[in-house]
Amino acid sequence: MSYVVVLPYCYRPYFEQCRSTWKFPAENMILVDNTVNNIGIMRAHNAGVDLMRARGADWLIILSAAVRFGGPGGLDFV
Hints:
single chain, about 30% helix
């Protein structure tokens, strides 16, 4: 099973707190920084869809910067 995680964010402190708890491999993630050039949530999600299709991934996981993971860092979810 392959997957892409897309995480759009516009508030850096929430992003940093979320980042400190996930354990997804960096190559499976697309981080969309909307703090400077806000492309919007839906365009960010579509960027995840584009990457998922380009890689032939099975799943797209849309992650909110408000999420905090426990010990497994989200890998138990995957």
